[in-house]
Amino acid sequence: MATGLTHKVVIPSSVSPLSIAGVGDELIRAVELAVPDASIHLRGNEILVQGDAPAVDLVEKLYEELFAVVRSGQGLSADVVTRSVALLRASDGERPRDVLTADILTTRGRAIRPKSANQKKYVDAIDKHTIVFGIGPAGTGKTYLAVAKAVKALQSKQVNRIVLTRPAVEAGERLGYLPGTLSEKIDPYLRPLYDALQDMIEPDAIPRLMTNGTIEVAPLAYMRGRTLNDAFIILDEAQNTSPEQMKMFLTRLGFGSTMVITGDVTQVDLPTNMKSGLKVVQDILKGVDDLAFVNLSAEDVVRNPLVGRIVEAYARHDAH
Predict the structure, then answer these.
(1) Secondary structure of the chain as H, E, C letters
(2) In sequence order, which residues have a C-beta less than 8 Å from that of residue 275 and are 6 or more positions away?
(3) What is the pLDDT of residues 262-312, one digit of tens each?
(4) Count of CA atoms in the C-beta half-sphere (13 A) of 21
(5) pLDDT for 69-115, tens place per residue?
(6) pLDDT at 206 exceeding the cut of 70
(7) Cβ neighbours of residue 25 closer than 8 Å, sequence gap 6 or more
(8) What is the arithmetic mean of pLDDT over 60-77?
(9) For residues 45 and 319, which has the higher predicted lDDT (pLDDT)?
(10) 141 vs 145: CA distance, rounded Å
């Protein structure tokens, strides 16, 4: 058990003690796991925090943030506790209440929001810039958050349509060697984009929106020769573009449009003698106005926590 200072945190009357403790005190245990130098005990509407001075100070700040999150209408979970502690320990000054309550889109009673400081920087960059690059490993929400911003922009009539695209060459495969019609060959590559859409739009509405051109999901090759006005355009898996394809895509930008380019520069599936367009574009466009690069890391992984540990393990291995 932690020893040292003892501090009392009073739960405000506007916050239920159960919402702070969790079922079976699971949220109390989550705080102790995230701040192992502190011991937490709930007594009615009071939280007794025992530990060394830095741990007690951190837990006090944590509960002030958690109270604010609960008052916003968001439920707490062990994941929210863990991410809040990580945000408080970071040096970028982002408060958990500002990050974890920043709703992007509400669909079927569920709010889509950033879960880390870098994710919030990413969605804020999309609001502020015409072209945004989201670069990071699998599971960091690059594509999912971009699609959420696109759906929100469509719903609020900021754009007239959504265009989702990705290169149809991955993992060493070529379309010509796959069985089936062209559509059947392409669909597996575009499936992650369909999956994100189905999380945010009623599945029955998607075919209608695609038929009337409001939503377009197509391989990158289909973008050539076009100018895309009043659209929210997402290029996914951009690490698998050539420099020429990347230039072709970026120059499709028309008036009233937003572009988001996502990718993971550690997962390039191009032939070994071909450069990745996502890697070289960072040097080419450095310093260009109205354009932002946002880097995400294993700390921003929002899938099973094991995914983040796997990403970190591979990064350590590749560094040797």
Answers:
(1) CCCCEEEEEECCCCCCHHHHHCHHHHHHHHHHHHCCCEEEEEECCEEEEEECHHHHHHHHHHHHHHHHHHHCCCCCCHHHHHHHHHHHHCCCCCCHHHHHCCCCEEECCEEECCCCHHHHHHHHHHHHCCEEEEECCCCCCHHHHHHHHHHHHHHCCCCCEEEEEECCCCCCCCHHHCCCCHHHHHHHHHHHHHHHHHHHCCCCHHHHHHHCCCEEEEEHHHHCCCCECCEEEEECCHHHCCHHHHHHHHCCECCCCEEEEEECCCCCCCCCCCCCHHHHHHHHCCCCCCEEEEECCHHHCCCCHHHHHHHHHHHHHHHC
(2) 242, 243
(3) 999 988 888 888 899 999 999 999 889 999 999 999 888 877 667 777 878
(4) 17
(5) 999 888 899 989 999 998 999 867 789 999 988 899 887 778 899 98
(6) yes
(7) 42
(8) 93
(9) 45
(10) 6
Whole-number Cα distances in Å, 298 to 54, 137, 303, 312, 314: 26, 7, 10, 6, 10
Q: Which two tokens stand for residue 289?
A: 């106005």
